[in-house]
Specification:
The complex is a heterodimer of chains A (364) and B (580). Chain A has helices spanning 55-59, 66-69, 201-209, 251-259; strands spanning 5-6, 9-20, 25-27, 34-35, 40-45, 51-53, 77-78, 83-87, 96-99, 104-110, 115-120, 124-128, 133-139, 143-154, 157-159, 163-169, 177-178, 190-194, 196-197, 213-219, 237-244, 264-268, 282-286, 309-312, 321-326, 332-333, 339-340, 342-346, 352-356, 360-362. Chain A is mainly β and 364 residues long. The relative contact order of chain A is 0.16. Classes of the chains: A mainly beta (364), B alpha/beta (580).
């Protein structure tokens, strides 16, 4: 039996932040340490691109003769503007020198092209916690897990890079659209939330005024070519809580966003829900005012049972906020002719409809 | 491993959206299908989804298969557990392949041929020309380093090695490629023995080498060819992280772990030998589409890794465009709605259409996906098998048959099969270790014969008589039907029954190249639908007038007894009654 997916819409929960180092490094915190956003947790040597220096061409010598002219050999350190190759003056030729453009180490010499590759000297870079909480796990040289208290909303699609910014909710209803008129200087560095966008111009203007991210209920399907689901790229970062052609943020999610208006929010775009090997898109608001040791126990993922709250993810009841009222044991024939296990769901105003079980997303 | 003995087998099929477990056991001395369990594939934790699918079987059969999170092996005296397990795998992202060769055409063509046989895509390629000269060399290094490749494929062909090969190897060594988690980067080396030895001497210390023979023979013969075969194995190995994703379930006790395209290809080859005709298996999954063609002389599977009915819908849209999809809709629908249905399906691949119109939109996507994929292979085939999550979940056989006829437009007489329970990839994996079990279950339990489809060649004016079709069943029953151009007729002939089929051009009608003689006189087998006479013409053209097109599409659905959308709910065709 294929069970419905659970999606997190939680105003306050325990959130595990896994801070994976970009490359192996020294972790400088221990399990139990309290951390703030700007606490350094590790130091790493970030790999830097090497520089290829055309020594033979600069000295005007044949590449295969380069060995005679090099003053720094493979493995030796060089300083920026330090000489790495020299041609002495002679009766026929003037003196020439070739210098290194960077501080580094001579990595290799290409005697066919006459290049010297210099690996840039690496300086230790600090990795910040970027979370307020307590360290619960350290994976030596690789990662640190920080437990924090946060509001979390999982989305159906995330596009773009991970970003932080101040949350600004546009409008006071879940289906209020973001228009160009809503975008001004006050949006600089912000993450805006709205039911959708009025037109494509909003995306362009948002980028121009410096909006870091958008949390949207849905977007129009026409113009889909730009979405990375089809291999495009997009800016600013977007997290969709609903889907294509859907208008409005799911009301419980909208309430969580409203409650956190003006707070620092973290957009974590993942991938499509069920694509193997990828993570879900998330909107995270870390509660920096809550003491790190004061977090609640981790909530269990909502289970499929009568009484569980859910959202309908497909027409004809797309976006319906409901509670499971009954779970018939046998499959039923749908209007489409398909046979599927169904759930009878009920809205808060008492409306009762039947939907396929797999079209539900459990929310609590 | 072939040669193992097992009385009960649990075969898993781990797809990008859906994980399946299939229980096979011996019943009265024969291997038979017992039950199938399904669960959503858990992203990054395949073992969880597979365990859930196994537990679904436990719930359906009452047979204990799991002890905690692990499978019980072998079968106990109380009937719990199974003797063996196999896996067909298609859950990972496509392999990103960098193709390298001495000559440009050789490297790109051969690599493309190898990549097409597996869930892989060529993200960069280079040959000697590309790495000679500073700018070109630097550009190529940048391109390869940014490509985030998983595998490097080096094709040396018949080259015996020498300076040119050494130059390529030297360049590869300087790329400094590192595999996932700091392991050695895999290099699939295809070429002559002396060339392989030379490459191994230069690169053996820095890369993880996999060596196979000439790619030419592999590319044209089948996925069982060594290069494609190796690439499929690498796909399973890399995307399961060397089996770690499956560790909790079974450790390393799998009897076979096979990439799904290879599994489907094995089934196609087996069927071709068994029925004595060429076979095309059409597997439309959530993320990929596979067409596996086989005849008595071998097989050849081709994979479109981002072309599916779930996460792969974006690839279908990009490859075909919305117009090629919308033309198959049997009702007026604006582009926005069709797109929204498709794109939302890509976000939530396991959801099902509750409304009839939404199902029709999904079917239109599937038609376009198969049509576009088939266009680049175009194989003559005597039998077509529909499998994969989307096709096997369609609500009636008429829809499956019509979808195949629309998208593939087979000519002549073709037998249509449906993999009713979606067992084919699992059975392909079973065939790698237990061929007898796979064969017995395939024909006894897995395949449903939809019927024989007879396509009239050429075309004519709609409504004008095209041919007279006569069917004489072996039991003595007879049916005569006059078919008009532009229509489909279904003549009942029950599954397992055989009949003589003759097709003659109607008066004033020409079939194909001016032929007025009897064009078909053959024996056909019946099916759950019967004999389908397709007089819509080849190639099938749809009217540019939306009203007429919708009318035609609706009429064809009606003729195939498709449910819903206001079409008549026709009973299934009865057996042709013998005339006394």
């Amino acid at each position: 039996m294929i069970k419905p997916l659970a999606i997190r819409i939680d105003p306050s929960t325990v959130y595990r932040v896994e801070r994976h180092l970009p490359t192996e490094g020294d972790i400088i915190v221990s399990v139990g340490d309290a951390v703030q956003a700007a606490t350094p947790i590790a130091r790493v040597l970030l790999p830097a691109p090497p520089a290829n220096v055309p020594v033979a061409a600069t000295l005007d010598v044949r590449p295969r003769d380069l060995v005679v002219y090099l003053v720094r050999q493979v493995g030796e350190q060089v300083k920026a503007n330090g000489v790495i190759g020299r041609r002495r003056a002679s009766v026929w030729q003037s003196k020439r020198e070739c210098v290194s453009p960077i501080d580094g180490t001579v990595e290799s010499v290409d005697y066919e092209l006459g290049h010297v590759t210099i690996r840039r000297s690496q300086k230790p870079t600090a990795i910040w916690a970027e979370a307020v909480g307590r360290v619960t796990e350290v994976i030596p040289r690789r990662a640190v897990v920080i437990q924090t208290s946060a509001a979390v909303i999982q989305g159906s699609l995330g596009l773009g890079e991970e970003v932080f910014g101040l949350l600004k909710v546009i409008g006071d209803r879940p289906d209020d659209l973001i228009s160009v008129d809503d975008l001004d200087r006050s949006c600089l560095g912000c993450i805006l939330a709205g039911g959708g966008i009025e037109n494509d111009e909003v995306l362009v203007t948002a980028e121009v005024v410096g909006v870091k991210g958008l949390i949207l209920g849905g977007v129009r399907a026409v113009g889909h070519e730009r979405w990375p689901v089809l291999g495009g790229s997009i800016s600013p970062t977007i997290v969709l809580t609903g889907g294509f052609g859907e208008a409005g943020i799911f009301p419980p999610a909208f309430e969580v966003l409203l409650r956190n208006q003006g707070k620092q929010v973290w957009l974590r775009p993942g991938g499509p829900n069920q694509e193997a090997g990828r993570v879900r898109a998330e909107v995270v608001v870390m509660h920096s005012d809550e003491p790190p040791g004061n977090v609640h126990p981790s909530a269990e993922a909502p289970a499929l049972a009568v009484g569980a709250r859910a959202r309908v993810a497909r027409p004809p009841h797309l976006g319906l906020d409901c509670r499971i009222a009954a779970l018939p044991r046998l499959p039923r024939e749908l209007e489409s002719g398909l046979r599927a296990l169904v759930a009878e769901v009920e809205t808060d105003d008492g409306r009762r409809v039947t939907v396929p079980l797999v079209n539900l997303e459990l929310t609590g | 491993m072939v040669g193992e003995r097992a009385e009960s087998i649990l075969a898993f099929d781990c797809g990008s959206a859906l994980s399946k477990a299939v229980l096979i056991d011996k019943v009265a001395g024969e291997f038979r299908f017992i039950a199938v369990g399904e669960a959503a594939t858990t992203p990054g934790k395949a073992a969880e989804g597979l365990a859930e699918a196994a537990s679904d079987i436990e719930a359906k059969t009452g047979r204990h298969l799991l002890h905690g999170d692990a499978l019980m092996l072998p079968e106990g005296l109380d009937g719990s557990g199974v003797d063996a397990t196999v896996l067909a795998w298609s859950a990972g992202q496509p392999l990103r392949l960098v193709a390298a060769g001495v000559a440009s055409s050789q490297s790109t063509e051969d690599a493309a041929a190898v990549a097409a046989g597996a869930a892989a895509e060529v993200v960069a390629s280079f040959c000697l020309q590309d790495i000679r000269g500073k700018d070109r060399r630097e550009e190529k290094v940048k391109q390869i380093r940014e490509s985030q490749a998983d595998v490097l494929l080096l094709v040396t062909g018949a080259d015996r090695g020498g300076a040119l090969l050494a130059e390529i190897c030297d360049f590869i060594a300087r790329l400094g490629l590192v595999g996932k988690n700091g392991t050695k980067f895999p290099l699939l080396l295809v070429g002559s023995r002396p060339a392989c030895i030379e490459v191994a001497n230069i690169l053996g210390a820095v890369l993880d080498l996999y060596m196979v023979g000439s790619v030419r023979s592999a590319a044209v013969s089948s996925t069982a060819g060594p290069a494609i075969c190796r690439l499929n194995d690498l796909y399973v190995d890399l995307s399961t992280d060397g089996g770690k994703h499956l560790g909790a379930l079974l450790g390393d006790k799998w009897s076979a772990k096979v990439a799904a395209p290879r599994a489907v290809d094995v089934v196609a080859q087996f069927m071709a030998r068994r029925i004595g005709a060429s076979v095309l298996v059409v597997d439309v999954g959530a993320s990929a589409t596979t067409l596996a063609a086989a005849s008595g002389g071998g097989g050849n599977a081709r994979v479109w890794p981002r072309y599916g009915m779930g996460t792969g819908i974006g690839g279908v849209l990009a490859g075909t465009g919305i117009a090629s999809i919308a033309k198959w809709l049997p009702f007026a629908c604006d582009e926005e709605r069709a797109l929204a249905v498709g794109l939302n399906k890509s976000l939530r691949p396991l959801t099902v259409p509750q409304l009839a119109e939404e199902l029709s939109i999904e079917e239109a996507f599937a038609r376009a996906a198969i049509e576009n994929a088939y266009r680049s292979v175009e194989i003559e085939t005597g039998a077509i098998v529909a499998t994969g999550g989307f096709l096997t979940h369609l609500p009636d056989w008429g829809r499956i048959a019509l979808l195949l006829l629309d998208a593939l437009q087979p000519g002549g007489v073709t037998t249509l099969f449906s993999d009713e329970l979606g067992l084919l990839p699992s059975l392909g994996a079973v065939a790698h270790a237990f061929p007898q079990a796979a064969g017995e279950v395939l024909f006894k339990d897995a395949l449903v014969t939809l019927g024989a489809a007879v396509a009239l060649p050429g075309s004519g004016r709609d409504g004008k008589p095209a041919a007279r079709v006569r069917i004489e069943s072996a039991e003595g029953g007879e049916a005569k039907v006059e078919v008009c151009w532009g229509e489909i007729r279904v003549i009942p002939l029950a599954e397992g029954h055989k009949a003589r089929l003759t097709v003659q051009p109607a008066q004033d009608s020409r079939l194909g190249e001016n032929r007025k003689r009897r064009i078909v006189d053959t024996e056909v087998s019946g099916g759950v639908l019967g004999v389908i006479v397709d007089a819509r013409g080849r190639p099938l053209t749809l009217s540019s007038d939306p009203g007429k097109r919708i009318e035609k599409l609706s009429a064809w659905r009606s003729a195939m007894q498709c449910k819903s959308l206001g079409f008549r709910e026709a009973p299934l065709p009865s057996t042709l009654i013998p005339q006394s």
